[in-house]
Amino acid sequence: MDFQFNEDQREFRALLREFVDREIIPVARDWEHSGRYPTEIVDGMREMGLFGITIPEEYGGLDLDPVSFALVFEEIARGWMGIAGILGSHSLACRMIAMRGTEEQKRKYLPDLAAGVRRTGIGLTEPDAGTDLQGIRTTARLDGDHYVVNGTKTWITNARYADPLPVLVKTDPTTTPAHKGMSILLVESSLDGYEVTKDLPKLGYKGTESCEIVLDNVRVPKENLLGGVEGKGLQHALSALEWGRVNIAARSVGIAQRAHDEAFAYAKQRKAFKQPISDFQAIQLKLGNLSTQIQAARLMAYWAADAVRAGRADGATGMAKIFCSEVALEASIDAMKIHGGYGYSTEYEVERLYRDAILMSIGEGTNDILRTVVAKSVLSGETVVR
Ligand SMILES: Cc1cc2nc3c(=O)[nH]c(=O)nc-3n(C[C@H](O)[C@H](O)[C@H](O)COP(=O)(O)OP(=O)(O)OC[C@H]3O[C@@H](n4cnc5c(N)ncnc54)[C@H](O)[C@@H]3O)c2cc1C
Prior knowledge:
Butyryl-Coa Dehydrogenase, subunit A, domain 1; Butyryl-CoA Dehydrogenase, subunit A, domain 2; 10 helices; globular
């Protein structure tokens, strides 16, 4: 087995690290606490072409391999996980349009999305349906050349910038199973009846907004039906979520790495009983555990990314997302403990890591639901563990 990055990946990671160290880490704590939108960081990511990481070169994107894609999220989350959120659902939606859109849809949207002139997100969740996406209530009724869309989406990341927003709808609410009547529409935000109604208050994941969107008789042109065929919406969404799980696994590694770095730095400089606390075995047990768990999580994230390169990989991406997100949470808690009382202070970085880490076990499929996905994948023989 070859665990080495190729030359391009090494150079790309060095570039990302330098960007994160220079542009994100120095401002993350202040901007996160003040709720300031990170406009300058978005500009920097735009200049680096990061809004086009999942877009083919012919439409102006970087078309990264999945391991390099993972590196983007790992490195940015090391600086500030909320910033990774700005790129996350944008990249998944772009990939979904690139893989599933009609040629006309790709030509219309992808070049601007790659340049970051347009941005996007993904509108699946509703107030009464998250895990159970077949239970959504948003409908799209065909009326001449348009779909008339009605419903409410919630927790939508990047909602205030997304244009178009891919929205999961029921084009036929009567089918059994329900997914056969589900489709994705690319909804432009300037349409009448499309309104971002509120920003949801949240524990962490600041820097990017999470909003409720109401669609009230929004008339969406028929040509904005993703792929041009009804009934494929859930499949489109699920295929995007696979890369999403790699993205979350990688973000988790980034959070964990930062917790690790902060914990080691603090343990070396903090003195108790006239010696650095890193001399105490109780602290070393935590430090050793941090290093071990993070390296295991990192390998798993890259392994899952590599599996995606080879095709559908629900089992591998599910396992990586579960494991890495749980390592991130544990690492952030241990880093707080090593910081003693200062770990609880908003003047230090580690409390943010803790607030951000917990989301990693919820987004892109909760860890519990993913455990069932992994089990089914192994039971069916699609994933082989040996
Ligand atoms: C900050 C943030 C950003 C988000 N961004 C987006 C976004 O950009 N776009 C978007 O569409 N969504 C987004 N989401 C929504 C997210 O994907 C959902 O919250 C998640 O899928 C869980 O859905 P739910 O909240 O409705 O929980 P529920 O589905 O109600 O689940 C509640 C609990 O029940 C468990 N559960 C449910 N069904 C089962 C089952 N069959 N077996 C066992 N356990 C089960 C779950 O694991 C969970 O513990 C975001 C959420 C947050 C918090």
